[in-house]
Specification:
alpha+beta, five-stranded antiparallel β-sheet, 53% helix
């Protein structure tokens, strides 16, 4: 009598032999896309080794390589479909279940054989890929650790998709519908959760989508598709969290357990039917149709660039009707029976329309919601212009939920009143979308847009964006800047290590950067003076005054740091050469603005021989090219300037009514320079409404290009 282990081994080996074509396909495809691709890639690679160490793990699991990730997912689904395809044939199902083998034993053997068919080739190809990489660059502890983590992420991703596919097969009676069910089970939760955010962004005026919402964060962990992508990306980047690991194991266990339960009760008469359990057919139809119709209408609206939300209703109605017909045909394969399930079709269409009405008429009060003041612990304030004026030396993206933007507790009342004024403006029809639009309006220039983050008990942050009167926002920002703590959090300069600065550069109204030849002592003195000015200058200087110029500081490249700590934003500009004796690349942090009130800094710059110029001498300029947007031309803000140009000025009008103007005459250059300045104002100016661009060509061969917008007196 053979043991259970020997019995299972024999069954698994037999099943693998029957599916030898899939095993061969897995080996060939993964071999070509992993070790072979890596070998070809390394043979033509010209970058530095540190970047290659970071990139090699991506070659193991497909993070950043959509084709490999897609292949891994498809092979996992195929393994599930082909393994249990016998349940879709009544003859095969009756034959297998007539054998003296328990259903549970059949399930275990087929499940494990399918997993082996995908996992074993993946393991072998991963090892070969690591060997190829190690042979090219040498094996280090860092490379081994990153590669092992990426490999683990790939294994877990395969397990999640394979388990979801197995569960989907048990719901169907045909291989074709099994494939459709697999795609539905894998993608449906992701569609549902991301659909919520998509509808909010389309219908709600105060919605801000720059940070992940709760539903989008859940999509990364509770949906097979989202978790699949999270596992690949996080593991390849060396950031595989315990939450992702636990979610992958839990989801795999739940799907597998569900598949086992369905397999135990799977009826023989279900084979050949679209759905194994007909009683759930209407519910499945409704559940699939409603979100898919909404998602399809959003995609069509985006692809056709349709303005307004009115198109959503007919598009959703059309999509819902078509989907109901398609699903009914899949169920019956008979066009004459398409109206048989009219009740579930009616529920599907009505459900989709109700959801649209819910968002269109804001039945939840989303736009006008503001937390009770007593429950607000602190408030963050992020005008659009901050993203134009600040670049932070942090590894994470600009985020309203970050500590940089939360105002001191004693200023919560001030920001709460400002937020309330934003809701009042919304009720009067002044929305952020209106302020950012190209609409020609005389009152639009007196408003700005800003995002507020309300920190509630428990650490939850609720974000809303509003249109604010410039005057109200300016008064509030001056109040905030009266706090030393707020300045230290807001200005990027206070987020760097001054002792790590290896160089300083300067630019002024000319827009040409020049490296300052300073000693270490002079650099420290200049940085100390800049810090003192940032803390002590009047708050109105930052809001009412326009910068005279800008400093930038060079810091060690974080990717070359042995400690792994980042000293500057990895998206900052990189110098092409080496700036310190250790031959380490440096990164540059810009946007350290110089204001008229920075007397200590400006005085030191003059002492060091670097004087800030406040006007461009027309004699230094050989020509200027302006690209004026259609909105600028319609506003007429530059009508006087354009009418005053000589006949030598060249004008080209585009189909969208935007205009290119090139001036070469010195008088024309002088006229243009009177109307246009590289710096557009204080911290509340120069936000997202910058549509124009200029190129200034100097006689010494330098070219300065920058976006700009007309400065409007508020």
């Amino acid at each position: 009598m053979i043991s259970k282990i020997s019995f299972y081994i024999r069954m698994i080996r037999k099943d693998i032999r029957h599916r030898g074509w899939l095993a061969a396909l897995s080996c060939i495809v993964l071999f070509l896309m992993m070790p072979v691709y890596t070998m070809l890639y390394l043979s033509t690679y010209t970058g530095n080794s540190s970047e290659l160490v970071q990139y090699l793990p991506r070659l193991l699991n497909g993070a950043g390589r959509q084709y490999l990730a897609l292949v891994i997912a498809l092979l996992s689904v195929l393994a599930a479909l082909t393994g249990f395809s016998y349940i879709h044939s009544r003859e095969k199902l009756d034959f297998f279940h007539s054998l003296p083998v328990k259903r549970g034993s059949w399930f275990v053997s087929v499940y494990l054989s399918g997993l082996i068919i995908v996992l074993l080739p993946y393991v072998i190809c991963s090892v070969l890929t690591i060997i190829v990489g190690a042979a090219d660059m040498g094996m280090s502890a860092q490379l081994a650790g990153h590669s092992a983590e990426a490999f683990l992420g790939g294994v877990l991703a395969i397990l999640v998709i394979y388990s979801a596919g197995t569960f989907a097969v048990m719901l169907t009676g045909k291989t074709v519908t099994g494939l459709l069910a697999s795609l539905t089970v894998i993608a449906y939760p992701f569609i549902i959760l991301t659909l919520i955010t998509a509808l909010e962004s389309v219908f709600y005026k105060t919605f801000w989508d720059e940070i992940a919402t709760l539903s989008s964060r859940l999509a990364d962990y509770v949906s097979p598709l989202g978790l699949f992508m999270t596992l690949l990306e996080a593991s390849a980047a060396g950031r595989l969290s315990f939450a992702a690991l636990a979610a992958a194991l839990l989801m795999s266990v739940l799907f597998t357990a569900g598949a086992v339960l369905l397999y135990r009760i799977y009826p023989s008469e279900a084979a050949g039917n679209a759905i194994a359990f007909p009683v759930i057919s209407p519910a499945v139809k409704v559940i699939i149709c409603i979100p898919t119709a909404l998602y399809a209408s959003l995609m069509i609206k985006d692809m056709m660039i349709l303005e307004g939300n009115g198109w959503m209703f007919p598009l959703t109605l059309l999509a819902a009707v078509i989907l109901c017909a398609v699903i009914d045909f899949i169920y019956t394969t008979d066009f004459r029976l398409l109206l048989k399930s009219w009740k579930s079709s009616l529920v599907s269409v009505a459900g989709a329309m109700f959801i649209l009405c819910f968002f269109q008429f804001d039945l939840s009060g989303y736009d006008t919601y503001i937390p009770e003041e007593s429950k607000v612990e602190s408030i963050s304030f992020l005008p659009d212009s901050f993203s134009m004026n600040f670049t932070y030396p942090d590894t994470e993206d600009l985020s309203v939920s970050g500590p940089v933007y939360f105002a001191p507790d004693d200023m919560t009342d001030t920001l709460y009143d400002l937020a309330q004024s934003g809701i009042d403006n919304l009720e009067e029809g002044i929305t952020p979308q209106y302020v950012r639009s190209d609409a020609d309006s005389t009152d639009k220039s007196s408003y700005i847009t800003a995002v507020f983050g309300y920190k509630l008990p428990g650490g939850r942050v609720v974000t809303r964006q509003y249109a604010l009167k410039y005057s109200d926002a300016a008064v509030t920002l001056e109040t905030l800047l009266s706090s030393r703590e707020y300045r230290q959090n807001l200005f990027p300069f206070f987020h760097i290590d001054k002792s790590a600065v290896t160089g300083i550069s300067m630019t002024d109204v000319y827009g040409i950067w020049q490296d300052m030849k300073l000693t270490a002592e002079q650099r420290r003195a200049l940085l100390d003076a800049y810090e003192s000015d940032l803390l002590n200058v009047g708050a109105d200087t930052f809001v009412r005054e326009s910068p005279l110029g800008e400093l930038s500081v060079d810091l060690p490249d974080p990717s070359q740091s042995d400690s792994g700590e980042f000293a500057a934003d990895t998206e900052a500009s990189y110098h092409s050469g080496f700036s310190d004796p250790g031959d380490r690349l440096t990164v540059t942090l810009t946007q350290l603005y110089l204001y008229p009130g920075f007397t200590d800094t400006l005085s030191l710059l003059e002492d060091y021989g670097y004087t800030i110029r406040t006007e461009i001498d027309p004699e230094d300029v050989s020509g200027i090219t302006l690209h004026l947007s259609a909105g600028t031309m319609q506003s007429g803000v530059y009508s006087d300037m354009l009418s005053g140009l000589s006949d030598t000025a060249e004008t080209f009008v585009y189909d969208d009514s935007s205009v290119d103007v090139t001036v070469l005459d010195e008088k024309d250059v002088s006229l243009v320079l009177k109307y246009i300045s590289p710096y557009t104002g204080g911290l509340l100016d120069g936000g997202s409404n910058i549509y124009d661009y200029m190129d200034i060509r100097y006689k010494d061969g330098e070219v300065y290009g920058q976006s700009f917008s007309p400065y409007v007196s508020r």
